[in-house]
């Protein structure tokens, strides 16, 4: 159950990052409200998952899902640039998350 909560927390991190971008520096009320609400949900699930997943593993996986997810949303939704170096960086993040998961007790 802890791993499920952690994955959902990571996905919510992507949602709040996108909503924050849409809030235009917190000048648009609805996206700003979505950012804060989803951020609280993401942090709550992260903290609950840390009851049984080590801090380093949980935080690395949470930020990794957020980083790679935001990267994909940036490309797919916002039309951000794709380059071999950015793709390699995302793949290295995924490799790091897999290694952290495999090293968890």
Automatic annotation (TrEMBL):
<keyword id="KW-0813">Transport</keyword>
<keyword id="KW-1003">Cell membrane</keyword>
<feature type="transmembrane region" description="Helical">
    <location>
        <begin position="58"/>
        <end position="79"/>
    </location>
</feature>
<feature type="transmembrane region" description="Helical">
    <location>
        <begin position="27"/>
        <end position="46"/>
    </location>
</feature>
<keyword id="KW-0472">Membrane</keyword>
<feature type="transmembrane region" description="Helical">
    <location>
        <begin position="85"/>
        <end position="104"/>
    </location>
</feature>
<keyword id="KW-1133">Transmembrane helix</keyword>
<comment type="similarity">
    <text>Belongs to the drug/metabolite transporter (DMT) superfamily. Small multidrug resistance (SMR) (TC 2.A.7.1) family. Gdx/SugE subfamily.</text>
</comment>
<dbReference type="InterPro" id="IPR045324">
    <property type="entry name" value="Small_multidrug_res"/>
</dbReference>
<keyword id="KW-0812">Transmembrane</keyword>
<dbReference type="InterPro" id="IPR037185">
    <property type="entry name" value="EmrE-like"/>
</dbReference>
<protein>
    <recommendedName>
        <fullName>Guanidinium exporter</fullName>
    </recommendedName>
</protein>
<dbReference type="Pfam" id="PF00893">
    <property type="entry name" value="Multi_Drug_Res"/>
</dbReference>
<dbReference type="InterPro" id="IPR000390">
    <property type="entry name" value="Small_drug/metabolite_transptr"/>
</dbReference>
């Amino acid at each position: 159950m802890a791993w499920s909560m952690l994955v959902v927390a990571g996905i919510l991190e992507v949602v709040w990052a996108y909503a924050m971008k849409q809030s235009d520096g917190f000048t648009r009320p609805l996206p700003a409200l979505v950012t804060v609400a989803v951020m609280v949900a993401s942090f709550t699930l992260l903290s609950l998952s840390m009851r049984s997943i080590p801090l380093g593993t949980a935080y690395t996986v949470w930020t990794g899902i957020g980083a790679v997810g935001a990267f994909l949303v940036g490309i797919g939704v916002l039309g951000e640039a794709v380059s071999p170096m950015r793709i390699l960086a995302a793949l290295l993040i995924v490799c790091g998350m897999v290694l952290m998961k495999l090293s968890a007790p």
